[in-house]
Amino acid sequence: MSNEPTTDERIREMVSTNPVLLFMKGNRQAPQCGFSAQVIGILDSFIPDYETVDVLSDPEIRDGIKTFSSWPTIPQLYVDGEFIGGCDIITEMAGSGELFEALGVEPPPEIIPKIHLSDTAAEALAQAIEQTGTPGQFLKLSIDQSWQPNLSMAEKGAMDVMADAGGPEILVDRMSAQRADGITIDLVEGPQGRGFKVENPNAPRMGEMSVQTLKQMMDEKIPFELLDVRTPNEFETARIEGARLLDDEGYNQALALPKETRLVFICHHGPRGESAASQFMAQGFSDVHNLVGGIDAWSIEIDPSVPRY
Amino acid sequence: MSIEIPGPGGVGDVTEEIRGSILEAIPDAEVKVTPGGPGHFEIRVVAPIFTDKSRVKQQQLVYAAITHLMSGPNPPVHAVDRLDCSTP
Fold first, then answer.
1. Residue of B nearest to A60 (CA)
2. What is the pLDDT of residues A200-249, one digit of tens each?
3. The complex's ipTM?
4. Are A138 and A155 in contact (CB under 8 A)?
5. Which chain B residues are closer than 8 Å to A63 by Cβ?
6. Domains in chain B, ordered, with CATH?
């Protein structure tokens, strides 16, 4: 059974124009199947940028890709137009380190990360290991490119190192090792009960920017993106020249910016900007700021011609 | 081993169809197909053509031979739980 030429051509076009392309169910933010989610997790820890195709939203591609690749299952990874494999193979290649070469990225340096554990956290971890672990398994910490920590139980793979945690055995994969070096894990009481709190000194922090600094950056023509998270009505009423409204279209355009772009978020008084800023940090942006006092502070302190409301 | 699946054609037919399709594509192969749950199969193929080929390329050769049994709205083969390819 062969493809209609159009489907085949469409797929060929996709794999030849995107250096790293994953055919999957759902998308990077919301995978719709466990296998796709697993591969997204791996790719996120290896490379910052890649493209995905959601086969659920395109039945023609969903069937066509199986014939195109001679591979019956989704997800499927293509690098430079070449089929690399499905979930099992990618997981295996990540564990052995072969995936670095396949994706064309330099393996990170081999370092032994130092982890500070509070006494209560060490005790709780020991208990958790005893309850859920099977022999041969260790507690494993990974920290992805968006600085999200994740704890799981796993066997030691070729790409894992044993962290220096002052006693307890904690595995860290080599991709995470640099990001994990120097972190503190504490046990805290929260509204949902006890939980681990991970403090990471390596993670970028959200900047609090004053309206004076913003004005100075504009005067000195320092490049940045000013993202306005207010409603279109508020934007019409009062705005700072050069700001981009973060409606659906603006949001997607902003997400596609290079991850090192300096982003400044602005709202009416500050809180909405802060919440949008954290969302963009979770997506891997590292130079993210919130304008303290919002557009109201701008009207009062910098430019009275911008109406207050 | 006897496992029954609903619908026309028993497990035996599908097992034979898989075997036959692979042999048509790779005539000098040694093929063993074992049915698992309904629509699930384990396949073992030994063939000289696999020599010096990556695991992905080996499996692609086999999958290409049986794609027609795995596509469409209600395919006789839902999943290949295990596919072992090796050289004699």
1. B72
2. 998 888 999 999 999 999 999 999 999 999 999 999 999 999 999 999 89
3. 0.76
4. yes
5. 71
6. 11-86 (3.30.300.90)
